Amino acid sequence: MNGLEGQVARLQLGLPIDPNVFDAALAFIATGDDMVDFTLSSLMRILYQYPSRIPPELKSRMERAVLDFRYWFYPDEGDVHSRASTWTEYHQLLYHSLEYLAGQRYPTRQFSKTEKTGAWHMEHGKFMLLFWMSIRARAGFSEWLSPGYYGDDFVGLLNLVDFARDEHVAQLAARFCDLILLDIAIHSFDGGLRCSMGRPYSNMLKEP
Prior knowledge:
Largest sheet: 2 strands, antiparallel
Helix content: 55-70%
Structural class: mainly alpha
Number of strands: 4
Low-confidence stretches: none
Distance between the termini: 21 Å
Shape: globular
Number of helices: 9
Strand order of the largest sheet: 1-2
Mean pLDDT: 92
């Protein structure tokens, strides 16, 4: 995922960032390929948490990436083709959390894919997030106790916990974090999950 997670750690530790890593991450986001939501999630955290640590020219490029990103498929757009996976449970959470946080951060800016304001995207992202959460609350996770995908859920949820200004959204995200951690605690034994699970892979089962 182009190493932005490592740059978050460097910023937290007060170390200098590597511009080459940001260049690679921005180039990847521009492709619209699968997994771009992970990279943009790290970029969004940096824009929220460390904006003063980023050189102005790089920060401008990062903001442009946020404004040009495709956050979902909207009814009035017509046919849209995407190489990115958006339909699985954790991808839905990542895309909706990104749209909400992008709109919240840039409420008056125009987003290029829809030509709508950030305020509109924040409300759309919030609606989709609450819908996602309501399904999980009523029916549980389709990727339940997955040793890989529960960790991916935290990427979107913790960004909401840390940066959502709507207290209701932030508190719901925190409750889902608590629920996932409780799930892991209850079903762990001898260093790994020992239970039924949704969407595991052989390497996840072999290596806890």
